[in-house]
Design brief:
The chain is α/β, with parallel strands linked by helices. Helices cover 38% and strands 11% of the residues.
């Protein structure tokens, strides 16, 4: 007999008629719980939510396996990259799952994602033969989903429906990880908290919960009100239930990483991520950004960040990654003259790096290109390219910012971007719009110095 918690059977909607949702502020800030568990963990959804990225036609089987191998290498036996989830619905999914289980990795642990029905739980048990000990399952939590999407007649009915697969999982020795879909639009005190309490009681505390910011409405501000304010949402759920929580963020407003950090700080044990921020619409919280955040907040547990370039290459075969993506993008390149000057001088600077957040070698990018020549470049960038090109050619020639050839190239570059002014149309015409390649810069120098063919 299920003990009934008091529910608010009235519907609670957040309907802003398609406009951007406003954020309400409370007079008092959220306060982190004093007893939250450490260490914090990351869980990976690249093979599940990441693969649902609208640019992804198909995630090949072998690439999925290789991704998990690299994730294992990235974790480097720290145990911080705690788990990865995958589907079980097609023959290819079952084959991939079997191969992953054969790897015998302690971390990341192999978990799954299933629909919230007892049939899927039984199928998972039959497929894994007891080797899968945790699975995610959906439990839509907002009234937008309970009534408008799923068509339930009451919030009580939703709880009854969700409990069946949850309890079935426990019967088969599988820990249910309940994904509270759309929590940032849910009735927190009227349904979410009573539901969590009910599940904890019925599963004798075994169940875990994933708080999902499904459409990215979450706000990291400590004063932001429920249900949008992530600090207040997480701290309230933790205080009222004591459950183990994980946060799953989406990046619709560009704050998935900030929300995930806030979730860690205000009571979540885990944060769910995808490589390169892959996922529905604007994507999920980025794995690599949260790795960097973990190191900055809690110290480096021994991550092998040197595998990040190979992970990027694997994913880029399937879907493009923005060149300016933090950590994994082409973020060690500079064009502006003042930045090029700083980069050129920082190797000898007593105070360390000037215009780089950290050494590229930290993330396996020791040979990263640091300079391109464009309209905003100064002589420092030209010097860097010429000296590098001369070294590649075995020449002892070295130039400085005072070298005549550098000034000539700088003037030629700017003339190319200027084009010419047509007085009849009052417009600039025939101007260059692309970067100068290192070879082009070298050829200009070679012509000036009589080194053609070098």
């Amino acid at each position: 007999m299920v003990t009934r918690e008091v529910l608010n059977e009235e519907r609670v909607y957040y309907n802003y008629e398609g406009k951007m949702p406003p954020v309400e502020m409370d007079p008092d800030p959220a306060v982190p719980p004093p007893d939250q568990a450490h260490p914090k963990y990351l869980t990976d959804t690249t093979l599940r939510d990441g693969a649902q990225d609208s640019r992804f036609p198909f995630f090949p089987n072998e690439d999925r396996i290789r991704y998990v191998e690299l994730l294992h290498d990235l974790d480097n036996d720290s145990g911080i990259i705690y788990a990865i989830e995958t589907f079980i619905y097609h023959k290819r999914d079952v084959w991939v799952l079997e191969k992953l289980l054969e790897k015998g990795f302690k971390y990341p642990r192999i978990t799954t994602w299933i629909r919230a029905n007892p049939k899927d739980v039984k199928e998972l048990h039959n497929i894994s033969q007891g080797r899968i000990t945790e699975t995610g399952m959906l439990a839509s939590s907002s009234d937008h989903h309970i009534f408008d999407k799923l068509g339930y007649h009451s919030k009580t009915e939703a709880i009854d429906k969700y409990l069946k697969p949850i309890l079935t999982a426990c019967e088969y020795g599988i820990t249910p990880r309940i994904h509270l879909e759309d929590t940032t639009r849910a009735d927190i005190f009227g349904w979410v908290i009573p539901f969590i309490r009910t599940v904890l009681k019925e599963t004798e505390g075994r169940a875990k919960f994933r708080v999902c910011d499904t459409i990215g409405w979450g706000v990291p501000d400590v004063y932001a009100s429920l249900p949008h304010g992530i600090p207040k949402l997480i701290s309230t759920l933790y205080k009222e239930t004591g459950a183990e929580f994980e946060f799953h963020g989406h990046n619709d407003f560009g704050v998935a990483t900030a929300n995930s950090i806030a979730a860690w700080r205000f009571g979540c044990r885990k944060v769910n991520v995808a490589f390169g921020g892959l996922g529905e619409r604007t994507g999920n919280t980025s794995l690599e950004q949260m790795l960097a955040s973990y190191i900055r907040l809690y110290g480096d547990p021994g991550f092998n960040l040197q595998v990040l370039p190979e992970m990027k290459s694997l994913i880029e075969k399937l879907v493009p990654i923005a060149a300016n993506s933090p950590v994994i993008g082409d973020v060690f390149t500079t064009q502006a003259g003042i930045h090029q000057a700083g980069v050129a001088r920082q190797e000898e600077a007593k105070g360390g790096l000037i215009y780089l957040a950290y050494d590229p070698a930290v993330v396996g990018r020791s040979t990263a290109e640091r300079t391109v020549v464009g309209a905003m470049s100064g002589s420092e960038g030209i010097v860097a390219i010429l000296n590098s090109e001369a070294e590649k050619r075995g020449l002892e020639m070295r130039v400085t910012t005072t070298s005549r050839v550098v000034k000539e190239i700088y003037d030629s570059v700017q003339e190319a971007y200027n084009g010419h002014y047509d007085e009849s149309s009052e417009r600039w015409l025939d101007y260059r719009t692309s970067f100068f390649t290192p070879d082009e810069v070298w050829q200009m120098a070679a012509k000036s110095l009589g080194l053609e063919g070098a």
